[in-house]
């Protein structure tokens, strides 16, 4: 997440199972356990633009903060650090600034403006470089699951002839602004293309098992969920009627809830029921095709180049008309609309039938950690139960006062 104005916070993200958060500031970085909310590691005197951690291990990646806006060379470096030993495992340099870093237990992916660098995390050997369309926001998602080891990134823009289209799909022509490339990081090959939206894709997220992919476009009114790796559309949710910038999408551990944050200041929670409900008109053949139609789609899916070349014919007349989008099951009204936030359901809640209230954790870029109670039976507006400031001021973060092992 980008920093909020006048804040020392440069980045903040949950780890893969939402048990910890990694915080980067102008003075250093910290690892904080969510329950109980406790700092477990901090490094001062290390200005940090980005920091990510691998589950709850001691492995973290750090992108240093440039000492001046014109000095971007430090942003082109990635440090892989063992926090337990307080040692640097390796340091990598890239031709352009590092925009995002994603990890699971087998792969590390570094996102640049026009390329994705794929590493074997066990030895940090470079396995492959994937050219992409211009990617100023660093849009990319990586499955947390090491067996369902996929990454997703935006397809080439309409009318372009970039390297990604040629190298990855065998086609030199862009196929639309709302496509998503699904890439197998074990075989290092394209698994398929998802025709997700009509407008450019703005947010992507996998569930914990790597079997579901959620997408949102720049318009931000609808969130869709597709199965992985076949790319079949499963769910469609209505965030709102007016456009909004989607800040984050997260699944809970059991893939029964979907959290969506946006710049409207509302966190939406949607239910992923075992059997998606939708209208029964002819357009639902996109969701549950006849055997003949299904076979055709499966054949196209196995040939990404064919799908890329003919995706216009694959899309229904209106993606929004596939079935009626479901509204949110529950929601949260954040106190400061416009501040970027990321939300996640506590990993300790594994089922919608759980008798205790679920906890929704929200981390905001103005430096606050909120916990809300979610009624899993009734839904509705969640109740604030805890609010923890990350600092005592807007300039110095108490979590970075000293170092703890």
Written description of the protein model:
This protein has 405 residues and is mainly beta. It has a single domain, classed as YVTN repeat-like/Quinoprotein amine dehydrogenase (Methylamine Dehydrogenase, Chain H), CATH 2.130.10. Helix content is 7%, strand content 41%. It has 3 helices and 29 strands. The strands form 7 sheets. It has a 5-stranded mixed β-sheet with strand order 21-22-23-24-28, with no helix packed on it. Strands 1-2-3-4 form a 4-stranded antiparallel β-sheet, with no helix packed on it. It has a 4-stranded antiparallel β-sheet with strand order 5-6-7-8, with no helix packed on it. Strand 11 and strand 12 form a beta hairpin. Helix 2 (291-302) packs across helix 3 (304-314). It is globular and about 50 Å long.
């Amino acid at each position: 997440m980008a920093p909020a104005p006048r804040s020392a916070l440069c980045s903040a993200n949950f780890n893969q199972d939402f048990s910890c958060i990694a915080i980067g500031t102008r003075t250093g970085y910290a690892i904080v356990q969510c329950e109980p909310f406790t700092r477990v590691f901090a490094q001062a005197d290390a200005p940090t633009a980005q920091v990510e951690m691998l589950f709850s291990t001691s492995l973290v990646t750090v992108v240093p903060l440039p000492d001046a806006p014109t000095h971007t060379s430090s942003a082109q470096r990635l440090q892989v650090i063992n926090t337990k030993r307080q040692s640097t495992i390796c340091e990598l340099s890239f031709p352009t600034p590092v925009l995002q870093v994603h990890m699971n237990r087998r792969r590390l992916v570094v996102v640049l403006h026009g390329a994705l660098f794929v590493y074997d995390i066990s030895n940090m050997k470079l396995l492959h470089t994937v050219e992409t369309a211009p990617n100023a926001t660093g849009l990319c998602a990586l499955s947390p699951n090491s067996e369902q080891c996929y990454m997703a990134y935006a397809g080439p823009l309409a009318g372009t002839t970039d390297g990604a289209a040629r190298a990855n799909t065998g086609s030199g022509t862009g196929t639309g602004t709302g496509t998503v490339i699904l890439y197998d990081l074990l075989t290092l090959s394209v698994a398929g293309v998802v025709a997700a939206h009509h407008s450019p894709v703005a947010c992507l997220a996998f569930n914990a098992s790597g079997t579901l992919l959620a997408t949102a476009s720049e318009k931000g009114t609808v969130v869709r969920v597709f199965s992985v790796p076949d790319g079949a559309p499963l769910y469609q949710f209505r965030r709102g009627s007016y456009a909004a910038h989607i800040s984050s999408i997260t699944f809970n551990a059991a893939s029964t809830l979907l959290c969506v944050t946006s710049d409207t200041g509302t966190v939406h929670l949607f239910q992923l029921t075992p059997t998606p409900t939708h209208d029964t008109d002819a357009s639902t053949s996109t969701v549950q095709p006849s055997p003949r139609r299904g076979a055709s789609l499966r054949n196209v899916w196995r040939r990404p180049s064919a799908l890329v070349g003919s995706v216009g014919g694959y899309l229904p007349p209106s993606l929004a008309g596939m079935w009626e989008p479901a509204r949110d099951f529950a929601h949260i009204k954040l106190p400061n609309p416009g501040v970027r936030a990321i939300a996640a359901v506590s990993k300790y809640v594994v089922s919608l039938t759980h008798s205790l209230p679920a906890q929704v954790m929200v981390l905001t870029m103005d430096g606050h950690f909120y916990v809300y109670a979610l009624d899993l039976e009734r839904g509705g507006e969640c109740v604030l139960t805890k609010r923890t400031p990350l600092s005592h001021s807007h300039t110095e973060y108490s979590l970075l006062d000293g170092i703890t092992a």
